[in-house]
Amino acid sequence: MYYSISIFIHYLGIGILITSILGGFIVHNSYRKSSNITEQLIFLKILRPIGLLGPIGLGIMLISGIGNLMFLGFASQDVISQRWLMEKLFMFFLVLIIGLYSGIRSKKRATLIEQIISGNENTKIEKQKFDKISNTFLIIQTILLLAILFRSAVK
Ligand code: HEM
User: Fold this and answer.
1) DSSP state at residue 78
2) Ligand 1 atom with least separation from CA of 62
3) Quick check: 37 and 117 in contact, CB under 8 A?
4) Which of 82, 78, 92, 71 is nearest to 155 (CA)?
5) What is the SS3 assignment for 130?
6) What DSSP line would sit under 51-102, residue for residue?
7) I need a labelling partner for 50 at 20 to 30 A (CA). Which of 36, 100, 107, 108 fits?
8) pLDDT confidence of residue 106
């Protein structure tokens, strides 16, 4: 019973993560298509709560994942001996680190846009660099999430 609840929460977390990534792609695509800087700032503000779903989803995955391990009766040496789990945890922490890093960069990009709007054109090149790398981050996160899902299904 407890395991069923824990795995149910695990599935909810997956839903939240997929929402965050798909929402991120959709809004970021509109951001990239827009040539109006004020409009771009609005898109970035919309992206913020969508991006926040990422760490919330990852937190749920970690807590419910530990729950799954406990209710399945895993001891710490079982965790190390399970290759699928070690690979999954490695990719999980990679997603977490990349997510935190891109969250910080996204905040910085909003500041750069605000500076451009207030007349400081010097920050334009730096903003363009941020734009390019943000899409790459989203693609990397998608690949990692799919790899984690695959490794969870194929043990
Ligand atoms: C993005 C992160 C994660 C995703 C997408 C994910 C995905 C999944 C999926 C789809 C399953 C169901 C597999 C099945 O029904 O057989 C599962 C089960 C499980 N997950 Fe995760 N997971 C993630 C993170 C974690 C973490 C961080 C842990 C450990 C701390 C964890 C531990 C487990 C365990 C123990 C099971 C049960 C395996 C079993 O029933 O044999 N997961 N996960």
Assistant:
1) H
2) 27
3) yes
4) 82
5) helix
6) HHHHHHHHHHHHHHHHHHHHHTT--HHHHHH-HHHHHHHHHHHHHHHHHHHH
7) 36
8) 87
In the numeric block, which tokens belong to residue 72? Answer: 């399945």
The token pair that represents 118 in the structure block: 């207030």
Q: What is the pLDDT of residue 72?
A: 92
- Smallest CA-to-CA distance from 5 within 60, 85, 82 is with 60
**Tens-place pLDDT, residues 118-136:** 888 788 888 888 888 898 9
The rounded average pLDDT for each run of 10 residues, N- to C-terminus, in the chain (155 residues) is 95 98 96 94 95 97 96 85 94 96 90 90 85 92 97 93
Contact between residue 141 and residue 17 where contact means Cβ atoms under 8 Å apart: no
- Residue pLDDT, tens place only, 27-37: 999 999 999 99
| Cβ pair 18, 62 in contact under 8 A | no
Dist. CA 139 → ligand 1 center (Å): 21
Q: What's the count of helices (H) and strands (E) in the chain, helices before strands?
A: 5, 0
As for ligand 1, residues whose beta carbon falls within 6 Å of it are 10, 14, 17, 61-62, 65-66, 68-69, 72, 88-89, 92, 145, 148-149, 152-153
Q: Report d(CA 58, CA 54) in Å as an integer.
A: 6
